Amino acid sequence: MTSRLHLVACFLLVQFVSSLAPAWAQYGDYERAPINYSNAEVNDAVAQLIDKMATGEVSLNYEPGHGYLRSVLEALDVPISSQTLVFSRTSLQLQRISPRRPRALYFSDDVYVGFCQQGDVLEIAATDATQGATFYVMEQDQQSSPTFVRDKGVCLSCHASSRTQNVPGYLVRSVFTDVSGRPRFGSGTFLTDQTSHFHDRWGGWYVTGQHGTMRHMGNTLCRGDEHTFDREPGANHQELSKYFTVDDYLSPHSDIVALMVLEHQTQMHNAIAAANYETRLALHQCREMNKLLERPDDYLSDSTKRRIASSVDRVLRYLLMCDEFTLTDRVVGTSEFANEFTARGKQDSAGRSLREFNLETRLFEYPCSYLIHSPAFTKLPDEVHRPILGRLNDILSGKDTAPEFDHLSPAMRQDLTEILRDTMPEFKQLAQNP
């Protein structure tokens, strides 16, 4: 009896600490039940491609200079127009990266592909609907049977921290970069998303596009410190040929609109994955506690409810673009990215989509993330998925008057309600039967 009481006391302590700091509780817990991150089977886009390659349904072609890059992008339905270029040495193949030889990053809604000139491997990350971000590499040597290899922890040294919301995930960093591409961490770094000031974005990245009087850190090397860093020379560039040989890449662009979408998407993915993990962990720990206390298996403790509610809040803040930086000038890209991205959107009966851009005062015309339509969001545990949609309905209907959503005007709320009702059957059902 004494040992059982001791076990219950220890478990209560864990539950108490978890309820106080859910993000902290996630850190490292994803390698244990119920997440089992490294050993769980996944069904992301790369895993599906691996299966198709095994049956001969898909084969990859090698191309001198780019290896398997173009073929992999095509097989994973990742648009070339999504290309962004980063010259800071802040990734796996850092010795292959410099201002004269930037790393190219391509992305779709759920896949990210990294390519280095003369690189040993392609770096790929794919979002599994249940397990979140999964990392792979593919050797760039010509082979009869090219193979994806799933990473077992190397990538997580950078891709599982507070910068990724304490789950395996994605991030866009802005750094002060010297002439060789090395980041000057002593000058500070910025984790960027849609809330970031323009002034702090894209250090160590190339940027093509117009942005008027706003200034960013892109296209510029750090020759002194953060106090002498001059943003003016890197502003409003239409092309990049003076920096490096653009013909060495699939596209000459590092489109500013693609960069802004990438910033939003990475942290939105992380918020969804964090809600997934935290809910599964909370439910698992609650069920274990229920066994010890001989409570019904479906009993939810107050600490479990608080952890799930915190996840709901975090997802909604990213989803509805809370604290988004207000643009003070119009942004215009240089590639076909904006048109191709918009064309992939689910349209309502009036032809509206969550993927339509504003780019004059904010990123999207309708400030609700398009990733609400993603498999990762749709397959969130019901215990957190239903409350997110329920509170979203309350916010848009005006029933929930939380001040963090004051940026949504009545017209915006009406537009979003109509778009979501037409494009999300589960939201329509909830809106009709609250």
Output the keywords.
434 residues, alpha+beta, 2 domains, 7-stranded antiparallel sheet, two-stranded antiparallel ribbon, 12 helices, 9 strands, globular, disordered N terminus
Order of neighbouring strands in the sheet with most strands:
6-5-4-3-2-1-9
Number of structural units classed as domains: 2
> Helical segment tally?
12
Shape: globular
Which structural class do the helices and strands define? alpha+beta
Strand content: 5-15%
Overall radius of gyration: 23 Å
Largest sheet: 7 strands, antiparallel
Order of helices and strands: HHHHEEEEEEHEEEHHHHHHH
- Tally of DSSP β-strands: 9
* Helical fraction: 25-40%
**Sequence stretches where pLDDT stays below 50 over 5 or more residues:** 1-27
What number is the mean pLDDT?
92
Distance from first to last alpha carbon: 46 Å
Summary of the model, kept short:
By secondary structure, the protein is an alpha+beta fold.
Could you characterize what this model shows?
It is globular and about 65 Å long. It folds into two domains: 45-257, no CATH class; 289-432, no CATH class. 44% of the residues are buried. It has helices spanning 2-20, 22-26, 45-54, 69-75, 156-159, 256-293, 302-319, 337-343, 375-378, 382-397, 410-423, 425-432; strands at residues 84-86, 103-107, 111-115, 121-128, 132-139, 148-150, 173-175, 189-191, 205-206. The strands form two sheets. The protein has a seven-stranded antiparallel beta sheet with strand order 6-5-4-3-2-1-9, with helices on both faces. A two-stranded antiparallel sheet has the order 7-8. The longest helix has 38 residues, at 256-293. Helix 7 (302-319) packs across helix 10 (382-397), helix 10 (382-397) crosses helix 11 (410-423) and helix 11 packs across helix 12 (425-432). The chain is an alpha+beta fold.
